[in-house]
Amino acid sequence: MDKQEGMFTRWFVNIWREILALPSNFREMRVFSIVWFGQCVSVIGSGLTQFALGLWVYQQTGSVTRFALIALSSVLPRLLFSPLAGVLADRWDRRRVMIFSDLIAGIGTLVIAYLFFTNQLATWHIYLLTALSAVCNTFQWPAYSSAVTLLVPQAQLGRANGMIQFGQAAAEILTPTLAGVLLVSIKMWGVLCVDVVTFLFAVGTLIFVRFPKQTGIQKHQAAQSSFFKDAAAGWRYITDRSGLVGLLLFFAVVNFLWGMVGALIMPMILNFAQPDVLGLIISCAGGGLLTGSVMMSLWGGPKRRIFGVLNFELLSGFCFLLIGLRPSAALVALGAFGAHFTIAIISGSNQAIWQTKVPPEIQGRVFAMQQMVSNSMKPLAFLLAGPLADRLFEPLLAPNGALADSLGLIVGVGAGRGIALLFIAMGFVKIIVAASAYAYPRIRRIEEELPDISFADPAVASV
């Protein structure tokens, strides 16, 4: 008992020290904080537009398929353009890549606003804008993520990545409600104009600051090599290091499972609860993501970052089990909160590992490959989720189904309980995958076996 009390006391003292050190820590991250704030505002503006345009398409067409094409339009460009985006993030100045990405996305939104104002807007314009926005985001992400190592001391990487997750979580929570209010008060055209203003604000913060000079791909090297060879160099850097390969495959599986969740969580809940309960559960999930992001921003994650990845992935697996265990709104909300709580800590710890193990001059290409592989699993998850649920798992727990008299006594029987069983299966897969990663020395010891890169002095960054 005394030992447990001592461990709790040390943990509490360490957290309190981190809180007291926040003013000093954020002074070290002054330039990053300015850039981060601008990007947070931009993400919220983009979320407003995505919500409003999706609602407009569904109201105009009444077609779920046409509504779903918006999601497809946002995924495919990421797969197609990631290698090119990574090369340009290493060849060009990363601050300028971010500026041009925001400007082009803002111009695209302004065009949509004009088309709507003149009553010329059509659904294919929405798909085109969504694809253009996805392309801009594809170019911005490797530039932004690799710029973090130029702006932030190594010890603060986990905290910086937590702040990025916080911005995304805040956008997920705020945009549906805020978009609904704005659509009533200033209409669609006004929402689009707000988005343009947020892009300009993000560009303004980037113009206001200066990044430390990056080495990147030297000009004479760029002139002598093709984009394909430069992109292949990023992939080769990963494949030459089995720890990074293992970590990439680990997250490919994890992202596939999360894609299944996104496709199936709503129909599972609606089979035993009303839409207002669904909204409450989704709010709980967003609250979990926000809470985890705040914790990661203040804490910075564990010193052994790989333990932050694997331990919280194990916790996420148990939360998946909880979501499917019973047709109970309280249990599903608790599981959704816990699973989303782990995202920021897992993602922040993982990204910090990559940022400390990949040299700055190749980070754009490596991070682009990382993004491409992760996103490539989402369409597969969307394609498999429906058939797996409808043709395999739902019949198993239908009345008189093969498992109705066994697992059905625990999970329940009837519509939606097969999906719940699939959630339980995904939870076990998560636990097995995390345990396997623990057992694989190249992943477990990745921080010891791969040397840290040398960091630029963030003091060189200026306002």
Automatic annotation (TrEMBL):
Q: Which residues form a coiled coil?
A: none
Q: State what protein this is by name.
A: Major facilitator superfamily MFS_1
Major location (coarse) = membrane
Q: Which domain of life is it from?
A: Bacteria
Location(s), subcellular = Cell membrane
- A cellular component annotation (GO) from this entry: plasma membrane
Instruction: Provide the alphabetized UniProt keywords.
Output: Cell membrane, Membrane, Transmembrane, Transmembrane helix, Transport
